[in-house]
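Protein 1 of 2
SEQ + STRUCT:
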Amino acid sequence: MGHMEFYKPIIVMIVMQFTYGAVSITTRASLLEGMNPRVFVFYRQAFATLVMAPVAYFSRSKTTRCSIGWKSFWLIFLASLIGITISQMVFLEGLYLASSSVGSAIFNLVPAITFVAASIIGYEHVNIRSLRTIAKIFGTVVCVTSAAAIALIKGPKLLNTHLPSSNSLLLNSSEFDNIWLLGCLCLFASSCCWSFWLIIQVPVTKSFPDHLSLSAWMCFMATVQSGAFLLITDPHLDAWKITSYFQFGSVLYAAIVGSGISIILQSWIIQKCGPVFSAMFNPLNTVVVTIFASIFLKEQIYVGSAVGAVGIVIGLYIVLWGKAKDLEELKEQQEKNMMVSRNDQIDVVEVLVDEANIKEPLLFKETNKF
């Protein structure tokens, strides 16, 4: 049983990376089939709301119920807008214009971007003389440089070399390169939005600590936001149609697995093993997506993409190493504070006992005089 308990989080994270890879592959297949990315986001969040709302309602107890005030409402609205609505719409545009393997690789930039944004805001302490800070800065530079290599340096093909590039029959090489660059920029913007979403979680969870209800509210608000945006950009209801069973299945799968079950499992992993452990498995998703995309979607893998993806993974682990050292120091500091607090409590008890020992004989002698 002890070995099983040790391997259980590892097994869960590996399975999750394969499910995330399946979400990425089926989503891009739906986009290539002609589905509107904004429509995909709307239906995904609508289905996710239908899944999460009953779970959140029936799982909460009387002690954990939270009332949503105006402050919580606007914080959740902002988090939904940045982290779900905008992030997913931009990500799907980049996924369609570039490739699913590039999308998975660039998503590994999130820890590095989060470090930079948190440092600017003041959530992350930066000490240039600290080896941990130097590692995080160096890892961030490696990640960003590698992402630029993916966007700007394509090179020869490594996989599916005998197949023409996507849209190459309709576009010349310069137009195709511009579309590729635009797709990479969209994927980078999506990673930035997700990083900002992670930072916004600090005030959001403090204002509304019920995580399941928070997830349901975010899915609902993202549904409303993406629906409103869809009404503005595509007012004709014909654009909202799902034209095949495969598109419907991919949206439903992304909603249930990508936005529903994965949130619960991710929360369990972070609670049990910490956020660094969870982030360590992200590069596995890149490997899974690259292999399956080349098999099922016939995506070409370029030298620049492969080198950039490897560079991002190296930079990611450097950043995670620095973050892990920060968590170790924080844990040690908390243990020291607890020891100091316990010692203070022991000292107070000893003083009270000493005072009681002093007062009792005196009181006893006083009572004997009468």
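Protein 2 of 2
SEQ + STRUCT:
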Amino acid sequence: MTTTIAPPPRQAPPTTPRRARKRAEPAAIRTLVSPLALASRRGKAVYWTVFGLVLFLFALAFLFPVYWMITGAFKSPDELNSNPPTLAPEHWHPGNYGDAWNLMQLPDHLWNTVVQAAGAWLLQLVFCTAAAYALSKLKPVFGKVVLGAILATLMVPAQALVIPKYLTVADLPFIHTSLLNNPAGIWLPAVANAFNLYLLKRFFDQIPRDVMEAAEIDGAGKLRQLWSILLPMSRPVLGVVSIFALVAVWQDFLWPLMVFSAAPDNQPISVALVQLSQDVPQTDLIGAMVIASVPMVVMFLVFQRHIIAGISAGSTKG
């Protein structure tokens, strides 16, 4: 007679501890004010009051200096230096802008700035795009080493590169030609921009490999892939790089001062404002500053959507 051993009864699964249940539940968002309090009439009133006050203070901090500069050019020299100062001109002098335009030769210096900024922008866009495409898609030998060396230049202070850059421009290696008092002295150093190159490379890395392989199957070469596929898809980041390049040249002071030290007529607006500030009234100088800042403000207002799109373009993979 055989005896069978019954299996042990199944035990109920252990109850989940309270700590485990709390971890499984989504964590509640903690704020200084509860959502219930914000939903009330008093909470909404307090919220919008604080929000409006903070927004007003920030707008005042950023816009008041601009207002003070614009209205200062409409004042007379005595009113500008009066104590206490006046918030609005007592007597408007719109002719100060015309005097600044003529006395400081703003058309010539603005044109010099446009030529220097446009050349630097074009060369930087061409060479940085080509280098970023090579490092991202062509995968050259020692490409990571080259990229690391390029990014290492970002750690070097710009002031430490002024003297080597000046010596190079004053006597180009192998050619032994000086680029001083020449717009090329502004263009060529601006091409070597490690930040914009890295920005373009990171964007090219986000473009799927399948797109490039499909173009290669259709018979497109490497240059054709860059021109017909990558560049149209890279309009947002190209817009950001363009704005960075233009603003960097437009607001630079030390390097144009060194390059055009012997040619005052070829100086950009940033250098001319300082060089001519001793011979003109202060109101005319302020008016010239307002005129010099208008192109950059207009460019920002026109291309602000491209700036936001370009900054957020590389955040997600396409």
